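To whoever is covering the structure queue this week,

Two jobs came back overnight. Logging them here so there's a record in the thread.

Job A:
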Amino acid sequence: MNKKALALLSGGLDSILAVRVLQEQGIELEGINFLTVFCTCTHKGCQHAATKAAHTLKMPLKVFNITEEYLDVIRNPKHGYGSNMNPCIDCRIFIFKKAKEYMKEVGASFLVTGEVLGERPMSQRRDAIFLIEKEAGLKRLVLRPLSAKLFPPTIAEEKGIVDRDKLLAITGRSRKPQIKLAAEFGINDYPCPAGGCLLTDPGFAKRIKDLIEYDCLTLDNVRLLKFGRHFRLSRHAKLIIGRDQDENTVIESLTGTGDVRFKLKGREGPFSILKGVYDKEMIDLSAAMVVQHTKFRNEDMVEVEYWTDDPSRTAVLSAKAASPDLVEKNRI
């Protein structure tokens, strides 16, 4: 075992402090960050926060986008979900396994995390922490500098590579000990703890459940979940309606081959797409629902343009706005 460690670096205060505590002991550290579309750490994204933190800490950082692989964890988590669709324990096992692979690549002897005992209700309980280590094949190789004295010594501590006396015993959800420690290190610029994972959001979780139920959990479909209003029209068809011009632009960029596109003829309104298996009746229903989401909903008829992959082959239909009850019945 050597004095090089791999640190899970989210860019949040806990991970920054964990690195600083070990840097004070002369441990050589390299950072790793795992990125998914479900992360909401900052308005600029997790990669930005981690990159900024690594620059401040003067340490190398490797970022991996693991969204596609991570979908398998969401589909069928061995240890179940949290309050919504967050498979926190399985997520942590998955990340630890990925980190273990990279440890071998960079020659690191142990893994460092900013975890604090009891800070997160599902994955940072004592029993969950030990379970995650074991299933990831990292038993006694994960050092948590902020809570280390609340756990048995890791191998790095036993071998004297890390001085256990200089580690901490922080526990619980209060941020006061971390803020105090940050001040001692002169760390003033760090993200607030408001970020997290979209899978814990009830509304987003409902949309994820819908994709799983109808066997549509793909990376392209997941990307769309962040944007627009979503409606399940049949087992094989789904409608997404933009809410503003920015969303219209994003949804249009995420349109897939064979999707039906909708927009009002000669008027401002949402850009919308119908995905899946559809017929003329489904197209008519979609157009009616699109009209309901415009300021022209009270007109007798509104002209709606629609096309598939060739915009030069646009057709036009006249649609009356769908009833609010019908809209709500199909809303995801």
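Job B:
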Amino acid sequence: MNRFFAYFFCLFCFTTFAQEEDPNLFTLDVSLFSGTILEHNSDISHLITDHPSGLIVSYNKKTYGFKDWESRFNYPDWGFSFIYQDMKNQFLGENYSLYAHYNFYFLNRNLNFRIGQGIAYTTNSYDKVTNFQNNAYGSDLMSSTYLMLNYRKENIFKGFGLQAGISLVHYSNANFKAPNTSTNTFAFNVGANYLLNYEKEPEYIPSSEEKKYKEPIKYNFAFRTGLNESDVIGVGQFPFYVLSGYADKRLNRKSAIQVGADVFFSKFLDELITYYSVAFPEFDVTGDEDWKRVGVFVGHELFINKLSVITQLGYYVYYPYDFEGRVYNRIGFKRYFGDKIFGAITLKSHGAKAEAVEFGLGIRL
């Protein structure tokens, strides 16, 4: 995790000049929160019985412009965080989560927006005998996303600072295993932060990049896979495969727009069609319907160093079986390894209804 940045500018055969090294400063922050579970689905109304509360502990690496991308995004922090949350409901239990996150700053660095993505463990997931009331969490391990918007002041006195604001914490296994109604907690938070080695804090380095940036159209090919299950409990988990191809055009150093197509091979849908044809003849499902789908999409990619955030909106042009509607969306992260190869973790859904977490590998040519 320790990363040291140095820039050395060499005049060949004459001498070497060295730029100041990144002081590698970190902040620690702790926040307490209390809030409520939002009733995004009436099926979870019996799980909203009190005000959940918890603790957020974070470790943040400061940036000052020693790499070009840092000034491009107004010197964000990156780091890791832990959340403990008591759901204040006997069927939901308690959640423990680990995240990687970014902090972005606005309004003269007084307003701080954080987005974190990670994995959560719940102490009391669904069980058909002992905990059938918990229709929100179908598995012990879940994906979790949290957002924070804080008024934040650092180094008010000898490295100590304060923050306060609002948070949204989402837990879902993205239909990895049914049931998966999920929960969203809206909360108010207040806490303190500490800047380690605060006396060594440097000035922010202005950007030296040219404003204009051009790149030819790039062509991307990706293979995505994973496991998921329909909403019918007990039908089973099955693998899925997605082949994607799309072109992207950089608008500037931060953003690119995308146009492409997906081919979906979702085995769970094949099993669901078979199940409905046998168990529910009134649905008029014959069992011979094709479970493959083809979609076209437009999207956006936000480049942050070697990481990027993708958002895509798609429409099924081949749609032989009606499942959750023709419009789908995808959001997630790509991590570049070199200039061409990337890995990706994305959530594919229909509106707020998750279908699958996709693990992908691709190439950008």
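Note for Job B: The first strand starts at residue 8 and ends at 11.

Please reply-all if you pick these up so we don't duplicate work.
Q.
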